[in-house]
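Q: What would this chain look like folded?
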Amino acid sequence: MHFIYILFTSPKALKPRFVQNKTMKKIILLAVGIGFNAFMYGQGTINIDTEKSVIKWTGSKLFRLDEHYGTVKFSNGTFYWTGDRVAGGDFEADMKSIVNTDGKFNEMLVSHLKNEDFFDVENHPAAQLKILNAQYVDYNEIGVEAELTIKEVTHPIKFRMSVEKQGPTQVFKTNFVIDRTRWGIQYESQGLLGTVKENIISDDIGFEVVLVTKPGC
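A: My prediction, written as structure tokens:
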């Protein structure tokens, strides 16, 4: 600020008043623009702890009691904040980290989930979740509008997310279900002609997501 004052008051740099006014207007507009962007895009960011954050998935046969479940890890994730509230976020899941934890056909099942019948992990190693809008229902619950990208296919989803403060961290939890066929995962789908009834896999995949923030990040 002192530099600007000297620039406009030094006899050697003295300019006509209308030039000074025009320059000052530009400075003011720039400051307003910066302030507006800070408001629109949040006042800060908080990263998640990828060691403590996790996605739990569940899938099943449609006409048989044959459920499988497991986990996927996050490779990175960031919440965007306005004031003391979540305003958005970007998260990426490492699809190579898929594991089966129900104890049935573990190696064979995971190999199948990673191939082109399901998530085609070799060609699509990451999935993304982008929070576009977050509206607080109350202090501990948020209504979320987001975009989920799997195998480079993006669709909007909505869900409720709880938030709980645990010491220096915050824990966000949500449950939602997607129709896998919307993301091009058609294997043994109930809508696929020629599929044997006993082999039909439910189009629904359930997700339970836990996001734990890093202290001070």
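Residues 2-40 form one domain.
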